[in-house]
């Protein structure tokens, strides 16, 4: 049987020596300073030696107190590490699911909905990546047709509208097209057909789309439009916050849909995994909650 002083007293001593204050150690231990002082006295009586010098300036460790504190600090570190290991072994390891998405989708559609996602899948940690250098079980792809090497499911297609800064309210669209640059989005080093498609649907000359400023992502074009740098034809699904907040104004009622959209793609080997199925269900529900959302197309 081990012959040890009170473990409570040893703990109170180590805490007091670390803070060099009975008051601070009392706060850390959630007791009164008097309780700390009594435990220290009990320990000193048990050891037969003083551990602290006490005077009007505070407390200081005696030589015996310094030696005891050095050993106790190391011993408590070992105990803390041992108990942490036991706890970690009892705690189920959380699964991590990596999802590859286009940058604009991650920033403007998925990020604002992360709270809902984490609530729906509480046992999963997510890595949301926009770099698809390594294949992953699950990804979101921007495209106009399904892939045939995996399960490919259309979540929603783009709904293109003409937008600009709020200072443009009340002005004629053709006047604005003559005065302001058009903001274009590149895909595969080529302009997406957002502007020609929208101008054609609106019955306006396609020549308005000839010039303008080009961006590598839709998110960049949206930021430029918010800053009043020009007019943009963008996916309404990606600007819901800006429209509600008044940062962007839809300048004309004309809308055109597609041909591009966002596809959920799952590798066949992972199709029936529980976390993949749960994520798929959440994505379908979130997409269906927006106008023109979730349209089941499988390949």
Automatic annotation (TrEMBL):
Q: Which PANTHER family match?
A: HTH-TYPE TRANSCRIPTIONAL REGULATOR, HTH-TYPE TRANSCRIPTIONAL REGULATOR PERR
Query: What family is reported?
Result: Belongs to the LysR transcriptional regulatory family.
Q: Where is the HTH lysR-type domain?
A: 5-62
GO terms (BP aspect): DNA-templated transcription
Q: Give the keywords, sorted.
A: DNA-binding, Transcription, Transcription regulation
Provide the protein name: Transcriptional regulator, LysR family
Query: What Gene Ontology molecular function terms does this protein carry?
Result: DNA-binding transcription factor activity; sequence-specific DNA binding
Q: Where is the signal peptide?
A: none
């Amino acid at each position: 049987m081990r012959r040890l002083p009170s473990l409570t007293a040893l703990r109170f001593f180590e805490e007091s020596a670390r803070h060099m204050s009975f008051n601070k150690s009392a706060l850390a231990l959630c007791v009164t300073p008097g309780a700390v002082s009594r435990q220290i006295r009990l320990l000193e009586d048990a050891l037969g030696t003083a551990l602290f010098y006490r005077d009007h300036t505070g407390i200081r460790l005696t030589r015996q107190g310094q030696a005891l504190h050095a050993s106790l600090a190391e011993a408590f570190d070992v105990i803390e590490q041992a108990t942490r290991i036991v706890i970690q072994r009892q705690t189920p390891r959380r699964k991590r699911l990596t999802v590859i998405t286009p940058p604009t989708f991650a920033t403007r559609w998925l990020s604002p909905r992360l709270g809902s996602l984490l609530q729906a899948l509480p046992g999963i940690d997510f890595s949301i990546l926009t770099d698809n250098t390594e294949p992953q079980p699950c990804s979101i792809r921007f495209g106009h047709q399904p892939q045939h090497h995996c399960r490919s499911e259309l979540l929603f297609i783009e709904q293109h509208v003409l937008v600009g800064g709020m200072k443009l309210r009340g002005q004629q669209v053709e006047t604005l097209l003559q005065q302001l640059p058009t903001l274009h989005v590149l895909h595969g080093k080529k302009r997406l057909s957002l502007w020609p498609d929208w101008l054609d649907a609106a019955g306006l000359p396609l020549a308005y789309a000839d010039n303008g400023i080009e961006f590598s992502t839709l998110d960049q074009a949206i930021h430029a439009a918010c800053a009043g740098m020009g007019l943009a034809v963008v996916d309404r699904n990606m600007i819901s916050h800006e429209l509600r907040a008044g940062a962007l104004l839809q300048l004309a009622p004309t809308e055109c849909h597609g041909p591009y959209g966002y596809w959920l793609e799952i590798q066949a080997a992972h199709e029936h995994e529980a976390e993949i199925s749960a994520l798929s269900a959440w994505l379908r529900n979130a997409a269906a909650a927006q106008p023109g959302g979730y349209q089941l197309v499988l390949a």
